[in-house]
Amino acid sequence: MSGNIPKLYLIKIAKWFMLTMPIIVLFYQENGLSMQDVLTLKGIYSVAVVALEIPSGYIADVWGRKKSLVLGSILGCLGFVVYSFSSGFNGFLIAELILGVGSSFISGSDSAMLYDSLLKMNKEKEYLKQESRVMSVGNFAEALAGIAGGSLALISLRTPFIFQSFIAFIAIPASILLVDPNQNSIKLKVGFNHILGIVKFSLWDNAKLRWNIVFSSVIGCATLTLAWFIQPYLRDLNMEVSTIGVIWTLLNLTVGITALSAHKAEEYLGKTRTSIFIVIGISGGFMLTGWFNSLIGVGVLFFFYFVRGIATPVLKNYINQITESEMRATVLSVRNFIIRICFAIIGPFLGWYTDHFNLSSALLLAGTIFFVLGGISMIFMTKAEK
Predict the structure, then answer these.
(1) Residue 291: exposure state from Cβ atoms within 10 A (0-12, 13-18, ≥19)
(2) 272 has a pLDDT exceeding 70
(3) Coiled-coil regions in this chain (predicted)?
(4) Which of 7, 130, 297, 338 would give a disulfide with 217, using CB separation of 3.0 to 4.6 Å?
């Protein structure tokens, strides 16, 4: 079981070391795609992930987390292989669908595999520390990939996609060599009604689990939302593209470094004060960034990513602590599903608001929205705990 942990690190690196991110829009445009085509592709990717998020988590619980991770890793590699040989919308569409399905099979299964591996070793109390390290490795990989991808693009814009195929391949042998901690357990009964039963249990019957999921989802949606505002925010400050790339790398390094100490912060503050800190830090990050349209706002972004480094592993740990192993991947997939649904509603609205007013007011509005949603869900979570 202890050997699972470094293999999960490799899977995370293969998933997050995205050489293509710095140049993907330029690559699309070089191959004749308009911005509408680009956004359509990303919309289809999100739909593919959302549609399969909960079913894939359920399949992981029934079929086995290892098999789910192997399938997701194979599809993740295949998607970039298709990208490497494609040169038009239809080829890119096939690649995005493959990547979306692959991502859904890894999402939730990796965290469930980590927690159950530690549980089998009677080390489940170390989950937060290990989840923080896995997240940190992912963010370090994402930061370094931004620099490496830009360098490879000097050869050609297709070169990062070719190299990305090899990076993604690393996850395949790593996932095959995993040992499923629940391989001898009694499997759940497969069926759509049972999926609905687990969803109903986690979001309706069990108040404690419900509000932990909702609170974690609100914060997850907030961190995802701000990520899409960073580039236009820095561009409004008249920064060069190269400077934006450096700041993006440093922000991801901030998350990675902070995540390493997330368990210590949670132990010191306790659950209630940690939750309050997260709500104020995340919503305040939006508001202060919108208020200070200057280099002070850039400093606030680093504070926001500091809070994010604590929030993500800590809130996942809260959910894992109160979830049974046989439904863990499904429950974590419910969380990811809610994050994407919330983003699909809030994100476009904030985008429309930005177009009709300005970026600063949109950030202030976003901070207000997440303060209200985060505060309400935190209050209900605290009541359910008591």
Answers:
(1) middle
(2) yes
(3) none
(4) 338
Residue 189 domain flag? no
Q: How far apart are CA 66 and CA 177, in angstroms?
A: 9
Domain boundary among 127, 146, 177: 177
Give the amino acid at 47.
V
Asked, for residue 184, whether it belongs to a domain, the answer is: no
Q: What's the rounded Cα separation, in Å, for the pair 100 and 96? A: 6
Q: What is the DSSP letter of 186?
A: P
Q: What DSSP string runs through 271-339? A: HHHHHHHHHHHHHHHHHHHHH--SHHHHHHHHHHHHHHHHHHHHHHHHHHHTS-GGGHHHHHHHHHHHH
Angstrom distance (rounded) from CA 157 to CA 270: 48
Q: What is the model's pTM?
A: 0.74
Residue whose token pair is 């192997």 = 70
Q: What percent of the chain has pLDDT over 70?
A: 95
- The reply to whether 35 and 62 lie within a common domain is yes
Distance from C-alpha of 142 to C-alpha of 338, rounded to nearest angstrom:
24
**pLDDT value at position 325?**
77
Query: Domain check: are 37 and 148 in the same one?
Result: yes
Residues 185-236 have pLDDT tens digits of 545 555 667 778 888 888 988 999 999 999 999 999 999 888 878 877 887 8
- Domains of the chain: total: 2
Which ranges of 86-126 does DSSP label H, i.e. alpha helix?
89-106, 109-120
Shared domain for 110 and 141, answered yes or no, is yes
In a domain, 187, yes or no: no
Distances (CA, A) of 354 to 60, 229, 233, 362: 40, 10, 11, 6
Show the domain range for 165: 3-177
- Are 328 and 215 in the same domain? yes
Same domain as 228, residue 169? no
Q: Determine the Cα–Cα distance for residues 3 and 112; give it in Å rounded to an integer.
A: 15
CATH number at residue 300: 1.20.1250.20
Q: ∠ CA(189), CA(195), CA(201), 5° rounding?
A: 110
CB distance 181 to 115 below 8 Å: no
Question: What would the pLDDT profile of 306-323 be if each residue is shown by its tens digit?
Answer: 999 999 889 988 998 898
